[in-house]
Amino acid sequence: MRERAANNLVAEAEKHIGVTEATGKNDGTEVERFLAITGLKKGQPWCAAFQAYIHDAAGLPAPHSARVVDWFKQNVVWEREWTMYGPEAKRGMVGALYYKDLGRYGHIVLIVGADKRNYYTIEGNTNSAGSREGEGVYRKIRTKESISALADYCINGRAFIKEYDAYIQKTMK
Fold this sequence. Notes:
Blueprint: H1 2-14, H2 29-36, H3 47-57, E1 76-79, E2 94-99, E3 104-114, E4 118-126, E5 136-143, E6 149-151, H4 157-172
Antiparallel strand pairs: 1-6, 2-3, 2-6, 3-4, 4-5
């Protein structure tokens, strides 16, 4: 069940690769559609709004929020402050990037694959350099060390608890 949900989510994200802003100011028909699901209008940062849009389109309950921090208040599997190394991210999880200058998570990514050192992602409001304030939807490669938190919205409720409870309890001790 989780694998099917993750595959549907990744397929939805892939449909939007190459979407770019119209004028470079967080605008354009598709960007504004992403923002609308969070109740925002053009001109606002939209990396988390993109995640809200694709999760909704894939039929997965997830925050309808454009604030990255809101994505890491529930269904959290791991945060760096718990332990340096967490579980291996699974396809379909979302990851947070922490920005010291902001003092918080400031960008969200969809994990689509991994190798020994990196996560392969699809991200909104980034660019070829991996900025958190870019102009489009791109495939990116992020080092595992760059990810500061993981959340999984591909499963919920009892299935989430069954999947992750033992790990979280062990880590939090």
